[in-house]
Prior knowledge:
single chain, 632 residues, alpha+beta, Beta-Lactamase, Alpha-Beta Plaits, five-stranded antiparallel β-sheet, 22 helices, 46% helix
Amino acid sequence: MVTLSPSNAHPFDRVDDVIFILDTETRFTFVNAFALNAWGKELHELLGRHYEDTVPTKASRDVMHAFRHALKTRQRTEFETFGLRHRAWINLSLYPSDDELIVHVKPLPKRTGAASLTEYDALTSCLTRAAFQDILKTLPLPYALAIIDLNLLKNVNTLLGHSGGDAHIRTVAHTLREALPAEALMCRWGGDEFVVLTPGTDLEALGHLLDQTNALLPCPLPDTLAFTTGLAVREQGTAYERAFALADEQLQLRKEHLRAATPGDRETASFVTFSQELEALKDPGDLIQHALNRLLNLLDFDQASYGTTEGETAFFTQEACSEGVPASQRLLHVRVSLPETGLIHTVYSTRATAWSTDYPNTRNNMPSMVAQGVKSAIVTPVLSHGEVIGTIVLRTLNRWQTITPHMRKIVELTALRLEHALELRRAVSEVKRTLESGLQTLGIVLEAKDLETHGHTRRAAVMAVRLGEALGLSPGDLDHLGQGAYLHDLGKLCIPDEILRKPGSLSPEEWSTMQSHVVHGYDLATRIPGVPQNTLSVIRSHHERWDGTGYPDRLTRTDIPLAARIFAVCDVYDALISDRPYKTAWSHEDACAEIERQAGRHFDPEVVQAFLHLTRQHPYAGPESPEQHAGN
């Protein structure tokens, strides 16, 4: 800020308008404090320098002509022009005095003249097309021109209603105005089209600024930018219409790929992707949360939640909120009686979507929701065998949202996708539980035959799966690892009891027979339809050793399947900390020390490190507690 002491203050410094004085060569001889602050200049930067070389925005030819005319004729002159820095009309009063010209600049709140002309667009606060075209007559050249066309506005209107479309237009216009330099002009050229002008010829800088702004704006549909641009330069001797046509040609070329995909194709692709995303998620809670987040962003609601029932009570399990919006449910998993009114009650009664664009005036609204400021809402059922098992709830707060048929279709399609994914997860879980029960039973039979410690197979299997998770195995590979762990001693069914239960040392021939159990187990498992290769590899290779001294194939290092390397560590560890007829149980610390000593000889060193890290995070609690032993 410029501050002047009373001793050096000029009377013009007390005026809150731009005032400056030029000599006959249009060089500054005085600039008042208000002008210095408005221009961000120091006095020494201006005095003695030409006006058109130093002002923040390039002076138009008409303004310079008016200055010279007033100096030559010594006549007081007053006129209006559009100020680029103000982005508004300004009044210039010129007062010739001896060999100087006093210039007084005042902003006008509204352009005088044609009273019927509306200068600014009511929706976006940008210049109207008529006002913009009027300004073009006096605008200095050259300037860079950008045509900005909003992408898929029709789809936004179909999806969110015209109020949602208007909100999208306002957001784009406001963000662009904030990003553009002060000297830029912005006009709403048509319903979904804007024109931007900036002084100079640097199209690269303007294009980069618009690209950065575009990346910050919300997408009208997934994977679609908010707008497309076309750029051109208008120079001396070039008609505006020519520059506009060149920019429009570039714009149309850039939009070609959007025209190639019909809205239906885009929606289909979007929901195929959505379905794939849901099927990739293992946990039902993750499935629901992902669906809520997608709906919240796609449909421009403030709150999204998932409710379910248990008996005669209802409760919410997941929620999502837009930034700055309070949570829709203050406490999740709090059971309350099923509501006897409201959209949720309607959904449970009709098993169909219920909605309201004007929720406060809906006949069966819930007063508590009205008190929270809910203005519009959709509730869609998630069904299972024809019964409602959950509801997707979307709400807006303190603003109305048009609930379009297309919007309801998207929520209902999401509910169907969610229903399918949850049903699939439930079916898979039941099959897995059945399979695991069968494998556990077989493990118990094998333990009884081999006189192993009760629960060894289950503990080693659970631990192996946790270790596999720590090492980044996929859900499918983890399932195969667990199956292999339960079946790892399947081949002992082929070993005579007198060898399995021999209390003393085995002869070389007996030891050879004992070692053959991995091959027998592998052969038996291959006869079971659908047993995957990763499961078979655990059965065959869990007695291989990192240094190549194991059996049956003398594999070394990473030639040993990873699932077998993982299970080998857990199998040996649990055997060490368990009582056996031929030994007492080792302590957890001694067993871990032995596992660490065998890294690089018996075991894969990386697997050992992961195992030790896992046991430090989840200390072992003894054979009697397999869940704690596994780190649950």
